[in-house]
From TrEMBL:
Cellular localization per UniProt: Mitochondrion membrane
Pfam family of the protein (one): TMEM126
PANTHER family from the UniProt entry: COMPLEX I ASSEMBLY FACTOR TMEM126B, MITOCHONDRIAL, UNCHARACTERIZED HYPOTHALAMUS PROTEIN HT007
Protein name: Transmembrane protein 126B
Membrane topology summary: Multi-pass membrane protein
Record keywords, A-Z: Membrane, Mitochondrion, Transmembrane, Transmembrane helix
GO-annotated biological processes: mitochondrial respiratory chain complex I assembly
Ranges annotated as spanning the membrane: 30-49, 64-85, 106-126
GO cellular component: mitochondrial membrane
UniProt keyword Amino-acid biosynthesis, yes or no: no
Statement: the UniProt record of this protein carries the keyword Mitochondrion: yes
Length: 152
């Protein structure tokens, strides 16, 4: 799941760079936006899904819900927010897009990047399905292990 969230970070960065017409410092944004989501997703999934499943505290429904939530929050929203902020700073620094009026900067940037945000719905759906499926499969594996331990 960490790999797919790093790919989502890469895609979000590409889309927001194109919306904000940022051409400078590609490695300054692409490298962190592929590494940080990977690490965040892997650690969060381990603490919220894998460890409770290993201890037998989660049901199948809760594991699917937690897996889907972790994949959406850490796999799509976190990289999208990072890409929006990093590329917004570069766009302001190099003045690649017109500056927003005072006091309305968030609205200005949101309207400017509306098409990129809409395109991020596709990876969000894929991440949700993938995270839920991965958590369900992991729950089935843990159930089999617990059954084998009970028989011995």
């Amino acid at each position: 799941m960490g790999t797919t969230s790093s790919l989502c970070g890469f895609l979000a960065n590409y889309l927001f760079r194109n919306c904000m017409k940022v051409k400078q410092h590609p490695f300054k944004t692409f490298v962190p936006l592929s590494a940080i989501p990977f690490l965040t997703t892997a650690v969060t999934y381990k603490f919220l899904v894998t460890d409770p499943l290993s201890s037998g505290d989660l049901t199948a429904d809760m594991s699917i819900l937690r897996g889907a939530c972790v994949s959406v929050l850490c796999g799509v929203f976190h990289p999208s927010a990072l890409a929006f902020l990093k590329n917004g700073r570069l766009a302001v620094k190099y003045e690649t897009v017109p500056l927003p009026p005072r006091g309305r900067s968030l609205l200005h940037w949101t309207i400017l990047c509306q098409s990129a945000a809409k395109l991020m719905v596709i990876p969000m759906i894929v991440q949700t399905v993938y995270g839920g499926h991965l958590a369900f499969m992991q729950h089935k594996i843990c159930e089999r292990i617990f059954e084998m331990l009970e028989h011995d």
